[in-house]
Amino acid sequence: xxxxxxxxxxxxxxxxxxxxxxxxxxxxxxxxxxxxxxxxxxxxxxxxxxxxxxxxxxxxxxxxxxxxxxxxxxxxxxxxxxxxxxxxxxxxxxxxxxxxxxxxxxxxxxxxxxxxxxxxxxxxxxxxxxxxxxxxxxxxxxxxxxxxxxxxxxxxxxxxxxxxxxxxxxxxxxxxxxxxxxxxxxxxxxxxxxxxxxxxxxxxxxxxxxxxxxxxxxxxxxxxxxxxxxxxxxxxxxxxxxxxxxxxxxxxxxxxxxxxxxxxxxxxxxxxxxxxxxxxxxxxxxxxxxxxxxxxxxxxxxxxxx
Length: 306
Fold this sequence. Notes:
Elements: H1 2-23, E1 50-51, E2 61-62, E3 68-73, E4 76-81, E5 84-87, H2 99-110, E6 115-116, H3 122-131, H4 135-144, E7 153-154, H5 159-180, E8 187-188, H6 197-208, H7 212-225, H8 228-235, H9 241-248, H10 250-259, H11 269-289
Parallel strand pairs: 1-5, 7-8
Antiparallel strand pairs: 2-6, 3-4, 4-5
Helix pairs in contact: 1-2, 1-11, 3-7, 3-11, 4-7, 7-8, 7-9, 7-11, 9-11
């Protein structure tokens, strides 16, 4: 079962890369879903809409649609299955800011087989989270990470791990120090830290300035790396996909590099692929909602000794 899930995650990562490139028109291609005009304004009657909550998360729901399309709705774009627009689990209209984002999400729906597998539709999942977002709850959680941010807790040995942390963590913290003049403390060992009040206020301001979609992406990265500051640096477009993955996974990648990767159903597959998929999804969705099609690497290279 674990092996099948891991394979599905790798497949989803490839689809994510293709969706991002096609929605952005990279390589001379562009995703070509039909555009259906939609009435603007609030939709009250949801009887003719597709309820995402009706799709089982375990991937056993049979595909019930033939055609996927996109269309303008409200202040953005929606995805439609056989002409019926989506609504989220909390019964909000599924609206994303750009046609590019809608096209990429439509691609995820279009490539489903006989069964719909939500766990290999990362852009859809992340966008739905943004639409149903509870900002107060998420912001509170992100602010709690500031004093326990993993990038601020270092080791002094082994030297190779300390070097790895410095390589991938220092550029993130230095962004806040150099470009925003913030004081950020770090420590070696398990002694607790308390960042300055001014730093916390500025971090809170950065989070408050995000849109709901940016906040969902920030949350996705922060939860993988246990680092709010890494999430903010990604939102500010200061860290590449490769470096974000290596920063978030530094200690886990070090263990794999030291002891070797265990293959098979009880190996490291899910542990490495799940974070990769979530980080790639967040960065790709950011590109799509801003119509900024930075290349999305389909494969992230792990840390190599310089």
